[in-house]
Amino acid sequence: MQIQLEGRARRFGDDINTDYIIQSTRKRDSLDPQVLKQYLLETIDPSFAGSVQPGDLLVAGRNFGCGSAMEVAATVVVGAGIKAVLAMSFARTYYRNAINNGLVPVECDTGDIHEGNQLSVLLTDQEVAVENRATGRRIAGRRLPEIVLQILAHGGLVPYFRRYKDFAF
Known about the structure:
By secondary structure, the protein is of the alpha/beta class. Helices cover 27% and strands 22% of the residues. It contains seven helices and seven strands; from the N terminus they run E-H-H-H-E-H-E-H-E-E-E-E-H-H.
């Protein structure tokens, strides 16, 4: 199993909590990610959502997705067309919600990745590698189990179960 992603880095810092990703008050308006994507990361950068291009990759520091366990904080990122989040570390609940919703969580050293860098991400059952095309640097990431790669390749847990009705190892 292999997942390959290419995209532009959209850089944020440490401790990006779920209420920064999408304010919990926005859930009163809708739970539809296509509606909520216009509010993505508005607390940090009000113009961010309007600047997102499909295929962009979020890049952050430590503890991405901390705070409340709102699943919508992962689904809104996917709804905006972002396929992966690269971070030094993730809050465990956000990490699981990302996988369940088909958002690729890549744990790696993000210190040398800057806003706008073009990135290539390769995930296999043997490795996770991020290439920063701006610097030529290759960064090793934390490897994902085969079952997680399968779930991500199918677009999340629900599509995976619709196809297999069980965990197929």
